[in-house]
């Protein structure tokens, strides 16, 4: 198993620092500190999850907010939660989802949006980002009436204008979960057997695409939907941070 730190010097190819899974927390923090102090580096990304012996919060704490290309540091996450404040960057996947909604002319202000999942990477920043754009937001998660999760979550999604699925449960969202005409963004990445008895796996989302596409007005596929937008927003964040670094020189 490997994990990696990626840093992006603007106008060049990204540098990948592959590190063995038995690397100590101190060694990884030292690497991050070195990159953080390098003026040629404009963005740092630590590939999560990390091995269990490394505290990701400690590692992320050593990334400056103005080099935090993922938007995961406490500073950027905190500013996202505060009204009328401005984080240096916004996490890539939620920002990609917002861009998809905007460019598809989906009304956000005044809409009821349901976010499935409350991770620090997608669910929580997505909810706050939608709130910033004046949506009424419901967050459903594994403890939402957990004895009958599927039924209780469905009660919320059936009334939603926008559904963003990021629970990590393959094909969870069915056609009868969706209000006719709703917009559905599928953030899930799950590996399931390609067919009965097959040793190969295929990628599916959290949404049963074949069912939900018959009900929703717009829907993203998996793969090929939110994923490419995440990469595009990563580059967007790098450029923003590079411009910020020039302003502070």
Q: Would you kindly provide a brief summary of this structure?
A:
The protein is α/β, with parallel strands linked by helices and 249 residues long. It is built from eight helices and ten strands.
Question: Can you tell me about this structure?
Answer:
- The protein is α/β, with parallel strands linked by helices and 249 residues long.
- Helices cover 33% and strands 18% of the residues.
- The chain has eight helices and ten strands.
- The protein has helices at residues 25-36, 56-61, 74-81, 92-103, 123-132, 149-157, 209-212, 226-247; strands spanning 2-8, 15-20, 43-46, 112-116, 136-140, 162-165, 183-186, 190-193, 201-204, 218-219.
- It has a five-stranded parallel sheet with strand order 5-4-6-7-10, with helices on both faces. The protein has a three-stranded antiparallel sheet with strand order 2-1-3. A two-stranded antiparallel ribbon has the order 8-9.
- A hairpin with a 6-residue loop joins β1 (2-8) and β2.
- The longest helix is centred in the C-terminal third of the chain and has 22 residues, at 226-247.
- The model has no long low-confidence stretch (mean pLDDT 90).
């Amino acid at each position: 198993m490997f994990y990696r730190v990626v840093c992006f010097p603007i106008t060049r190819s990204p540098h990948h620092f592959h590190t063995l899974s038995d690397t100590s927390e101190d060694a990884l923090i030292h690497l991050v500190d070195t990159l953080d102090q390098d003026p040629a580096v404009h963005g740092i990304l630590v590939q999560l999850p990390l091995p269990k012996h490394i505290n990701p919060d400690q590692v992320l704490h050593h990334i400056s907010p103005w080099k935090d290309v993922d938007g995961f540091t406490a500073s950027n996450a905190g500013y996202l939660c505060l009204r009328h404040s401005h984080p240096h960057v916004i996490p890539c996947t939620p920002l990609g989802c917002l861009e998809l909604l905007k460019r598809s002319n989906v009304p956000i202000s005044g809409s009821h949006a349901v976010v499935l999942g409350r991770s620090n990477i997608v669910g929580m920043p997505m909810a706050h980002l939608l709130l910033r754009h004046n949506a009424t937001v419901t967050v459903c998660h594994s403890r939402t009436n957990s004895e009958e999760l599927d039924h209780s979550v469905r009660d919320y999604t059936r009334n939603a204008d926008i559904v963003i699925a990021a629970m990590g449960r393959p094909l969870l969202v069915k056609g009868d979960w969706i209000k006719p005409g709703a917009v559905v963004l599928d953030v899930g990445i799950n590996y399931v057997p390609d067919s009965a008895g097959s040793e190969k796996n295929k990628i599916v989302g959290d949404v049963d695409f074949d069912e939900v596409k018959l009900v929703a007005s717009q829907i993203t596929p998996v793969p090929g939907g939110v994923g490419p937008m995440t990469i595009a927003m990563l580059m967007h964040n790098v450029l923003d941070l590079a411009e910020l670094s020039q302003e502070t020189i």
